[in-house]
Amino acid sequence: MARDTRAGRSSGYEGVLRARLRQGLRRLTGTSPARAAMLIFAVTIAVFASLLMMPWATVAGRSPEFHDALFVATSAVTVTGLTPVNTADHWSFAGELVILIGIQVGGLGIITIAALLAISVTRNLGLRTRLVAQEGGISTGAMGETGQVIRTVVICSAVVEAALALVLIPRFIQIEDDAASGLWHGLFYAISSFNNAGFVVHSGGLDGFGADPVVVWTIMVGVFLGSLGFPVLFMLWTNRWHVRRWSLHTKLTLQVTLLLMVVGALLYGVMEWSNTNTIGEMSVWEKVQNSLFASVNMRSGGFSVVESNMENSETMLISDALMFAGGGSASTAGGIKVTTIAVIWLAFLAEARGDAESTAHGRTIPPSAVRVAVSVVAMGATLVLISTVWLMYITGLDMGRPLYESISAFATVGLTAGLTADLPPEGLYVLAALMFAGRVGIITFAASLTVRQRSRVRYRYPEGRPMIG
C-alpha cells in the first residue's frame, strides 16, 4: 500500500514537472521564437558533439579531443563544412553517419525554423503586411499551418536529395567499382550538397573528380537549389514558369543569385586561368566548368576541386565578397543573403536618382526593410571583424587567411585557406561561435528586428540631419 502511494506521488510529481516543462517551452516559443530557435540549435549541437565524443566515432577507436568534436558537430548542424581534421581519415563510418545525420537535421531545422519565424513575424504585424507576406507564399494558404510547413519542407528536401542520389550513386559505383562504397558516397554527397554543407568523405576531397562532369554538375545543381531557399522553391513548384505570379522575393533572389554566379565565374576564370596550382593546366572546357563550380560553391556550398590557399590573392578577395553575400533567405545557405544585397542596392539607386522610395518589379520596398537589411550587414561585418582580429592575435598571421576563414565560418560556407586545421583550441572555439552566430543569429536577429517594428510611436522628436559623406 505504501509502495503504491509513493508510486502515485512519484507519477504525480512527474506529471506536474512535464506540465510545467511544456508550459515553459510554450511560453518561450510564444514570447520569443527567435530565442527558442537558438536554444534548439544549441541543444542539438551538444547532442551531436556528445555522439562524436564516443570512441566508436573515430577510426582510432578512442575518444577525440573535445574541441574537435564540438567544432565538427557545430559545423555539421550549421551546415558549414569547416573541419580541423580530415573527415575520411579521422572518423569511422559510424562517425561519418553521425555527421551526415547532423547535416540533415541542421539543414531541415534551418529551413523550417526560418519559415516558422517568418510566419511568427507576419502574425505579429498588421493586416496589410500579412497580406503582402501571403502573396509571397509565406504566411497563409498552403504554407500557413505549422504542420503543413514542416511536411512541405521535409518532402521538398527528400525529393531533391533523392533525385541527386539517383544520379550520384550509380556514378560513384562505376568510378569506385564497389557497390557499398558508391552507395554511401553518392548518398552522402547528395545530402551534403543540397544542404550546402561542403563535407567530403574522400581523403583528397573532390580533387580527383574535377574532370568528371556528372559528379561536378550534380553537386553544383544540388548546391544551387539548396541556396535558393524554401520559399523560392515552393513558388517555382506552384507557379512553374509563370513569372508574373512569382513573388518579389522570388524574382530578386533569382536575379541576384544568377548575377553573382555568372560574375563570380567570369572573375574566377580570368584570375585563375594561368595559375598552374589551380586550373591553369586544365583543358578549356574544364576551366570553364570548374570556374562555374567554384562560383556556385563560394556563396555557401563549400565544395572545391582545388585548394583555396593556392589561389591568387585577388581571387581570394573575390571569394571573401561572394561568401559574405551568401544565398537566399530561408535556405541552407549562409551569408547576409542575396535579398539583403538587393534591398540595399535598390535603396542606393533610389537615393542616386532622387526617388523618395525604393521600387522593384512594380512593388515599393518599405523603409523598414532597408533598415533591417543595413542592420544585418552591420551585424555580419562586426562579427567577421571581431573574429578576424581575434584569430590574427591568436595565430600572429597577417589579415588574409584569418579574414578568409572568418567569412567562411560566418557565412557557413566551409571553404578554407588551410587555417582551421592549424588553429589551437581557442581559435576553433572562436570559429565555432561564429558559425553558430552566422547561421542561427542572422535569422533570429532579422526576425526580432522585424517584430519590434510593430510598435507604434505616439510622438516624434524634431528632425535633426547630421552631415553624411
How would you describe what is shown here?
With 469 residues, this protein is mostly helical. It has 17 helices and 2 strands. A hairpin with a 2-residue loop joins strand 1 (358-360) and strand 2. Helix 3 crosses helix 5 (93-123), helix 13 packs parallel to helix 16 and helix 15 packs antiparallel against helix 17. Mean pLDDT is 84; it is low at 124-145.
Portion of residues in beta strands equals under 5%
How many E strands? 2
Oligomer: single chain
Globally, the shape reads: globular
Q: What's the alpha carbon Rg, rounded to whole Å?
A: 23 Å
Average pLDDT, all residues = 84
Low-confidence stretches: 124-145
End-to-end Cα distance, whole Å, is 83 Å
Helix content: 55-70%
Structural class: mainly alpha
Biggest sheet descriptor = 2 strands, antiparallel
Q: What is the ordering of alpha helices and beta strands?
A: HHHHHHHHHHHHHHEEHHH
* H/I helix tally: 17
